[in-house]
Amino acid sequence: MSEKNKLLTIGQFAAMHGINKKTLMWYDEIGLFKPAAVNQKNGYRCYDYHQSPVLETILLLRELDVSIAEIQNFMKNRSAENLKNLLDEKITELDRSITHMHAVKNILCTHRQNMITLLTMDLSEINIIEKTERCLITVDIDKDTSFEKEVEMITAETKKYKLGRLHDASYGSMISTASLIAGNFDDYDKLFIEIPALTQESGLHIQPEGRYLQAFHKGNWDKIPDRYKDILKYAEKNGLKLHGYSYERGINENVIDQIEDYIIKIEIPVL
User: Is residue 237 classed as helix, strand or coil in its secondary structure?
Assistant: First the structure.
């Protein structure tokens, strides 16, 4: 731009920054960003090209959801240190938002994959799949743990890990393969919570990567033992050794109205 000292009209200055001129009028009215000059005859506001960096800073802060009051306070105490401190705070908030959005995307992808599975699977099939490592939050249970106690423990864990909503995670139950082999099909050991954004931390259960036997069960939970018997026969026939835990989770809660249509995905590590 050859004439940088030339004053610009409010329309020209607004267009240069991709905003409405009413925004500039409002900023002037609240004392946030004043024009370089005001025509005494017609009251028209005029702006200097060199004001652009200041306006761009204001627009950036607004894009980061910094409040007008915060920006006004910064403008009254404008310095490199104050801007750095303000940006540090907003970068931290933005990082949290990005992490949350990645988690939401992972949840959506999981739901979509579950729907694909529902549309294409054969419930009678037992397959071998590969899984990546997962980090799970777990709570211990046994035969005597009441449903009310389970809800209480799960709620406490979701609060501990600052989980905003129940559907920001997936839930399931775990039973040891030792119990399955012994025929103790109702000796559940743990409930688990999987938060997509969770990374390895002390106290978490690591669901190992590797080969898993995958099967499905449809209907009431009291029929799951029959499905596990099918799984054990399949493993024996194919020379597979079950180890660790069986991980169970529902995959169609959001598209059914009755428990008879409930489908549980069962995944067990195999050697």
Answer: helix
Amino acid letter, 47: Y
Contact predicate 234/222, CB 8 Å: no
pTM, two decimal places: 0.68
Instruction: Note whether 228 and 176 are within 8 A (CB).
Output: no
pLDDT, mean of residues 19-28? 95
d(CA 195, CA 169): 5
Instruction: Tell me the pLDDT tens digit for each residue of 90-129.
Output: 899 888 888 878 877 887 888 888 888 888 888 899 999 9
Burial environment of residue 137 by CB neighbours within 10 A (0 to 12, 13 to 18, 19 or more): buried
Handedness of CA 232, 204, 153, 262 (dihedral sign): negative
- Residue pair 47/58 in contact (Cβ under 8 Å)? The answer is no
Separation of alpha carbons 87 and 27, rounded Å: 21
Nearest to 265 by CA among 171, 187, 181, 199: 171
Task: Please answer whether residues 7 and 36 qualify as being in contact, where contact means their C-beta atoms are separated by less than 8 angstroms.
Answer: yes
Rounded to the nearest 5 degrees, what angle is found at the Cα of 121, between the Cα atoms of 117 and 122?
A: 160
Q: How long a stretch of residues is the chain? A: 271
